[in-house]
Every structure is written in structure tokens, then in C-alpha cells.
Specification:
Blueprint lengths: L2 H29 L5 H11 L6 H8 L3 H13 L3 E6 L2 E9 L1 H22 L4 H17 L14
Antiparallel strand pairs: 1-2
Helix pairs in contact: 1-2, 1-5, 2-4, 3-4
Length: 155
């Protein structure tokens, strides 16, 4: 593949990410005026889970626990997330969405989906399907790979 192709991909991908962050920020304010895009993304992951520990969220997003803690505090104060005892380890806590958090997230999700449909309505269905397939392939190539530790005899 040529450098020009990689450069074009990087440019378009960067633009897509900037627009996605801006869209997430706007959607977050429809959920609650005190939230930012990061909090909306966290809420989305929590809606899709049965509950996650703060440390698991930090690892998932590749950020420190302090950053996650600040976002989770905003979500808790807004009544969108609550802490519960971890059923696997009663000393730990998991974060789960409240019914109000799920309701507000669903409303924002419907708005996001309507925007996608509106903006892609002129595209042929096969192109939308191709884009989804290619994005899935791209996402898979960015999955973290497990690091294999070298044993003492391999050093």
C-alpha cells in the first residue's frame, strides 16, 4: 500500500474521531447538562453491561482510575449510575446504570441513530453494509494484543 493511501486513511480517520467526540459531547448534554462526551461513553458501556468495576472501565478505556472516578462521580450525582456490591467479591463494588440512566441513554441513542439514518439515507444499502464490515475489520485490528512475558530462561 502507498504512503498516500495511509495518509488519506489517517486524515479521514482523524476527522471521523474528532466529529465522533463532538457528537458524543452533544449527546451527553441531552442525557444531562453536567455530562461531557467521556461520561456519555462510560454510560453507554455501563448500559450494555451487568455492572463493571471502576478499574475495569479504566483498563478498557486506557486511562487512569482518577479520570474514570471523576466521570463516574458526575454520573452518580446525576442519578444515572449507582454502586452495588460485586456479587463475585463483596469487598468490591460494581457500577450499574439506574432506571433513569437507562431511560435517558435510550433517548440519546435514538437521537444518535436518527442522525445516522438521516446522514446516510442517500447511500445505497450495500455501501452502508460495506462500511459497517470495514469498520468492524478496522476495530478488530486495533484490539489490544496480550503481552507475553518472557521467562527468566528466555532473557
Amino acid at each position: 500500500m502507498t504512503e498516500e493511501a495511509y495518509d488519506a486513511l489517517e486524515r479521514e480517520f482523524s476527522l471521523l474521531l474528532r466529529r465522533a467526540r463532538a457528537n458524543a459531547s452533544e449527546l451527553s448534554r441531552t442525557v444531562h447538562p453536567d455530562l461531557d462526551g467521556s461520561a456519555y461513553t462510560l454510560l453507554s458501556y455501563l448500559v450494555q453491561s451487568d455492572g463493571l468495576r471502576a478499574g475495569d472501565l479504566a483498563a478498557l478505556f486506557g486511562v487512569d482510575k482518577g479520570a474514570i472516578s471523576r466521570q463516574l462521580s458526575r454520573l452518580e450525582r446525576a442519578g444515572l449510575v449507582e454502586r452495588r456490591a460485586d456479587p463475585d467479591d463483596r469487598r468490591a463494588q460494581v457500577l450499574v446504570t439506574t432506571p433513569e440512566g437507562r431511560r435517558r441513554h435510550e433517548a440519546a441513542l435514538q437521537l444518535r441513530r436518527a442522525r445516522f439514518r438521516e446522514r446516510l439515507s442517500s447511500w445505497p444499502e450495500r455501501d452502508v453494509a460495506s462500511l459497517a464490515r470495514l469498520l468492524a475489520q478496522l476495530n478488530a485490528s486495533f484490539e489490544p494484543t496480550p503481552q507475553v512475558s518472557k521467562g527468566a530462561d528466555e532473557e
